Structure to design on (412 residues):
């Protein structure tokens, strides 16, 4: 991930080696000017763009260096020149900062379109891109600077002067009032407004690409709750940390200008302080808190879904366990039923066998009885027949038994 591009990244060389170590505003004692909001910036202005009402002011008429806020005028003049945005520009030695030795990620020989150069100059305050735009302006750099001053006069920026398209010179000077006028006009150009507030961008540089981030942290952070339409940051030692924005609060279009803050964090804190003051004055909900809550909603939803999923899994396990127990119990119960049924079946079979056996025995008994009766009848018939024969024998006079009986009796 490439390093974030901003004025602070260009290192201590942002000041001239032989130049001052104190900003013009501090040298003039403006930093000690009291204000109700206790702002860190030496100069501040908050104005309603639609009505022109000034809501906050602090040294807003002081003429001071404005550093890279200059690039807003550079962009406005380039846009009005109507040059082809897809035309290729080449970074040359002329674009290298030899006064402050500020760093740049655009090496000499890098090619990029006018559109890319314009975007990088606005969103990341890229100095070589801004200087290349000036060189490529019809008539060259000198004509470019003349056009910038002419436009300032046309807009009524009476206390403004430009000497280069980058803002690296401390002779690029203006007032908070004039800067607010410039911001208002830049906001009317949709493309410039979009370029200035692009959070991050992958620049096509011919044979390579580079990712750039916006120099304004309020643009990059959704949790800050800002609705920013135009923005520009700036820094050189003589100007201090500068920031201007066209933003919307409570449905109102507001222009903020902050010059000569101690640090990057201080200028952002001043902007936040002015917004909170305004919100309190108008009785509005804190947009930063509302935005933070909105940003947390997806996280809360994910957490809620995860919790619900965990609960569902627990329920599924409980149901599975219950079903397993029920099935086991049912199996045991069925097994018991089957065992009982088996025993009952065996008892029934035994009973049936016994009944069958009893029936068989009864039948056999009946058969035997029947056979016995039959045998008795047969025997009886035989006996009767025999007796008949005896009778016949006696009748015929041939009875032998009588003689036999008589002989036996004699022997005994």
């Amino acid at each position: 991930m490439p390093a974030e591009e901003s004025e602070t990244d260009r290192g201590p060389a942002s000041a001239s080696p032989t130049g001052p170590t104190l900003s013009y505003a501090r040298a003039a004692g403006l930093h000690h000017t009291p204000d109700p909001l206790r702002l860190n910036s030496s100069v501040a202005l908050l104005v309603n763009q639609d009505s022109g009402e000034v809501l906050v002011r602090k040294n807003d008429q002081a003429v001071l260096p404005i550093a890279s806020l200059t690039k807003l005028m550079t962009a406005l003049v380039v846009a009005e020149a109507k040059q082809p945005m897809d035309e290729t520009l080449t970074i040359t030695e002329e674009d290298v900062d030899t006064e402050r030795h500020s760093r740049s990620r655009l090496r000499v020989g890098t090619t990029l379109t006018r559109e890319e150069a314009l975007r990088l100059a606005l969103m990341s305050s890229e100095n070589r891109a801004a200087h290349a735009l000036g060189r490529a302006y019809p008539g060259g750099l000198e004509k470019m600077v003349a056009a910038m001053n002419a436009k300032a006069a046309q807009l009524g920026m009476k206390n403004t002067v430009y000497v280069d398209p980058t803002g690296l010179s401390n002779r690029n000077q203006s007032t908070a009032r004039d800067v607010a006028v410039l911001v208002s006009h830049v906001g009317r150009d949709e493309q410039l407004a979009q370029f200035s507030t692009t959070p991050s961008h992958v620049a096509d540089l011919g044979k390579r690409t580079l990712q750039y981030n916006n120099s304004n942290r309020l643009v990059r952070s959704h949790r800050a709750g800002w609705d920013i339409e135009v923005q520009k940051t700036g820094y050189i030692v003589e100007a201090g940390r500068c920031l201007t924005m066209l933003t919307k609060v409570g449905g109102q279009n507001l222009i903020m200008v902050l010059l000569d803050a101690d640090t990057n964090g201080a200028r952002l804190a001043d902007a936040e302080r002015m917004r909170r003051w305004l919100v309190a004055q108008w009785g509005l909900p804190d947009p930063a808190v509302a935005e933070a809550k909105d940003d947390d909603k997806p996280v809360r939803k994910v957490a809620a879904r995860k919790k619900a999923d965990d609960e569902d899994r627990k329920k599924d396990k409980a149901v599975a366990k219950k079903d397993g127990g029920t099935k086991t119990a049912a199996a045991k119960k069925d097994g018991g039923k089957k065992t009982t049924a088996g025993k009952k079946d065996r008892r029934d079979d035994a009973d049936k066998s016994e009944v069958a056996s009893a029936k068989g025995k009864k039948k056999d008994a009946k058969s035997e009885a029947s056979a016995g009766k039959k045998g008795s009848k047969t025997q009886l018939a035989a006996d009767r027949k025999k007796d008949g024969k005896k009778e016949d024998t006696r009748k015929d006079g041939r009875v032998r038994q009588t003689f036999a009986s008589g002989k036996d009796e004699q022997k005994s």
User: Anything to note?
Assistant: Residues 287-396 form the longest helix (110 residues). The CA atoms of residues 402 and 408 lie 10 Å apart. The mean pLDDT is 79. The first strand starts at residue 43 and ends at 48.
